[in-house]
Amino acid sequence: MSTLRFRVVEEAFKKKAAKVDVPAERPSEYFGSLVFNRAKMAKYLPAKAYNAIVDVIDNGKPLTPGIADAVAAGMKQWAAELGVTHYTHWFHPLTEGTAEKHDAFIDYDGKGGVMEEFSGKLLVQQEPDASSFPNGGIRNTFEARGYSAWDPSSPAFIEGDTLCIPTIFIAYTGESLDYKVPLLKALDAVNKAAVDVCHYFNPDVKKVYAYLGWEQEYFLVDEGLYAARPDLLLTGRTLMGHESSKNQQLEDHYFGAIPTRVTAFMQDLEIQALKLGIPLKTRHNEVAPNQFELAPIYEECNLANDHNLLIMSLMRKVARNHGFRVLLHEKPFKGVNGSGKHNNWSLGTDTGILLMAPGKTPEENLRFITFVSNTLKAVYKHNALIKASISSATNAHRLGANEAPPAIISSFLGSQVSAVLEKLENSDSKELIIEGKHGLKLDIPLIPELLIDNTDRNRTSPFAFTGNRFEFRAVGSSANCAAAMLALNAAVAEQLILFKQEVDANIAKGQEKVEAILDVIRKDLKESKAIRFDGNGYSEEWKEEAKKRGLDCETSVPLIFDAYLKESSVKMFHTTGVMTEKELKARNEVKWETYTKKIQIEARVLGDLAMNHIIPVATTYQTLLVENVSKVKKLFPEAKANALSVKNLEIIEDIANRTILIKEKVDAMIEARKVANKIECEREKAIAYHEIVPMLDEIRYHIDKLELTIDDQLWTLPKYRELLFIR
Ligand code: ADP
Ligand code: MG
To answer: Rounded CA gap, 182 and 408, in Å?
Structure first.
């Protein structure tokens, strides 16, 4: 081992678990202590202001300057009591992270001093100088202003000395520049459309919520080792590194005992998350070594998404207090599983009904099947778009590989639900409506609730029904879930609107309500049948079969993004009011540009490492071998010397060949980048960069081979066996 490597590895292995500040109270007592939630509002706002703001949050009533001032005053008082000195609008630009700019509460008091000040105006709207956020050309420099505006549906919270106010982010001209605006619009659209459909079954429903329960996978790496890997530092993944002899083949990590250093990190993170109102519930080891998962109890989708963004930034901070770095990249290490972020999604009413859960009566099951069928139809119709919503340069390493969902969207329903749908599809509505003693009776087969819980899980399905929800498994671990959630909710909203129109038309023609519903469901199930697939999603046969079924099988990420601009997508986003064509176009510019930049950075880092780490080390070792061979020649007679040097000569040759190949391939990659960089059109440029991706793998292949040959004492970069096993 090289001295540098030895030092960092030794440090890493010596580290003990950090001490965690465990509060004296129970979690139920400190949960939400750093959140300006309803209890805090009730305490810090005058009764009139409290009622008014609740009306704004629950019923979408307009926010008046008077209410805003009252809320701001209450918020400031609460925050000041907790030692807070600054505030910030907290928003989600198109960067996959969050943005914040802190301002102190101070202002001149008119008497030569300063005082703490926070008005409703500052709470409600700000004008960050935001010309450096990705905007896809929406903001010309002369109208570079962007506005951040308060989202009262997600409560303000405290991080350190700063009050964070969740906000939307829009351009001066009104277009959205973030993920929150279209997400909120999609949630509103699905609420309205689902309430209308619910009224066929439950006329008292006033609101339908979309729920999201995300499961965040991540890797931890010791920070000393991390610092010695420029590729991890700059790209979030290892661009080289031979597989460790032992990795996940013994299947001994999944659900295994959590190392104490990691347990301390998790405990610390959970305490801080609970204080921020994030209901973390589950933690466990994942499949790959050093891979873990955490999941909260599901929440309303907008809040759940804010909480996911918050937890990602919190994880990064807390990890550093424990001498770790968190890797949220979808594929930090070759040869072991990558990380995803399952999005458990469902719809539920204000009256407490989970619309994706089977019920106890045939009527409840008709409602359940209505929502399942509409979801399947939406996912079928927009399968290319839904895939685009989770695609990125980083997630591309996961999709299609033999561990994660394939790059084809399909839905697994389990045998119970599949059987019911089959029956519905192939029978006459009249057969299903039986005239009984008590009038009309529905003959929809009952779905035993207990059995549903144990649906034979199909881990290969990207969109699986899991008892009372759909689990969208293709989302990447580093992604902002909003991209997937806004596409899914908007698509389902569009479909529910169409469904209602068709059912109403049937009723207008004189059909009974139930018969009218069953007729449309039967037609929809037939039309969307191609999306249902219960088999092995990793198999080659499925790729063939999916192509025949007309599902989108594109694997090039820049081309997958085209789905956003398909006529059906533009129409869907327009009718649901979620995004305009101008916004979609601008966002695609950002997507292509981001794709290009990610590959560009990786290519540069790999090129640099190859040239100034790998080739020099390889050459040094080669020189040692050459010296050895010439010394052997001096010591022994020629024939014997030749015989003794055979193996070293082979290694010398192998190193020479590989260094030549590495150099040639790095040069070719640089040339390809030069050509690509000249392309003006972002889409074309991204396509050109997509061609560069395999070059990285080719270079890596030779580097990884060299890693196996070269004297371990010379190799400075920490190896997989050191990076992947926390002691
Ligand atoms: P698994 O790994 O078996 O999928 P986890 O316990 O890790 O399960 O995560 C399941 C996630 O699904 C949790 O976040 C949970 O709150 C969420 N969830 C459960 N029911 C629903 C539902 N009806 N709608 C949305 N999310 C749900
Ligand atoms: Mg899980």
So the answer is: 25
Summarised one tens digit per residue, pLDDT across range 105-162 is 888 989 999 888 888 888 888 887 666 788 877 765 556 678 888 999 999 999 999 9
Q: Is 278 helix (H, G, I), strand (E, B) or coil?
A: coil
- pLDDT under 70 in the chain at which residues? 129-131, 139-144, 249-256, 400-405, 433-441, 445-457, 726-727
Q: So what's the pLDDT on residue 204?
A: 97
- Closest by alpha carbon to 463, among 545, 523, 534? 534
Q: By CB neighbour count within 10 A (0-12 exposed, 13-18 middle, 19+ buried), where does 316 fall?
A: middle
Q: What is the 3-state secondary structure (H, E, C) of 232-248?
A: HHHHCCCCCCCCCCCCC
Whole-angstrom distance, CA of residue 403 vs CA of residue 288: 11
Distance 616 CA to ligand 2 centre (A): 44
Residue written as token pair 């064509």: 581
Report the CATH number that the domain containing residue 518 is assigned in CATH. 3.30.590.10
CA distance 448 to 507: 31
Strand partners, 114: 108
Round to whole Å and give the CA distance between 387 and 389. 5
Q: 454 and 340, same structural domain? A: yes
Q: Is residue 22 part of a domain?
A: no
Separation of CA 226 and ligand 1 centre (Å)? 32
**Residue 126: φ, ψ to 5°:** -140, 165
Residue 455: CB within 6 Å of ligand 1?
A: no
Give the pLDDT confidence score for residue 426 in this predicted structure: 87
Q: Please tell me the residue having the least CA distance from ligand 1 atom 11.
A: 213
Closest CA to 495 of 344, 353, 376: 376
462 and 528 assigned to the same domain: yes
Q: Does 332 share its domain with 446?
A: yes
Integer angstrom CA distances of residue 113 from 72, 106, 110, 323: 22, 10, 7, 43
| Structure-token pair, residue 560 | 């997958």
Q: What is the Cα–Cα distance from 325 to 631, expressed in whole angstroms?
A: 47
C-alpha 401 to ligand 2 mean position (Å): 20
Strand 299-300 relative to strand 208-222, pairing? antiparallel
Q: Which atom of ligand 1 is nearest to the CA of 214?
A: 14
What phi, psi does 344 have (nearest 5°)? -80, 120
Which numbered ligand comes closest to the C-alpha of 343? Answer: 1
Residues of 545-573 as b/e, b for ≥16 C-beta within 10 angstroms? bbeebebbbbbbbbebbbbbbbeebbebb
- Of 554, 579, 604, the last residue of a domain is 579
688 and 675 Cβ atoms separated by less than 8 Å: yes
Distance CA 223, CA 265 (A): 13
Q: How many domains does the chain contain in total?
A: 3
Minimal CA–CA distance to 45: which of 156, 158, 209?
A: 156
d(CA 255, CA 253): 6
Å from CA of 293 to ligand 2 middle: 7
Ligand 1 atom 24: the closest Cα is on which residue? 346
Determine contact, residues 347/194, Cβ cutoff 8 Å: yes
Residues near 257 by Cβ (< 8 Å), separated by ≥ 6? 285
CB-ligand 1 contact for 216 (6 Å cutoff): no
Does 547 lie in the same domain as 398?
A: yes
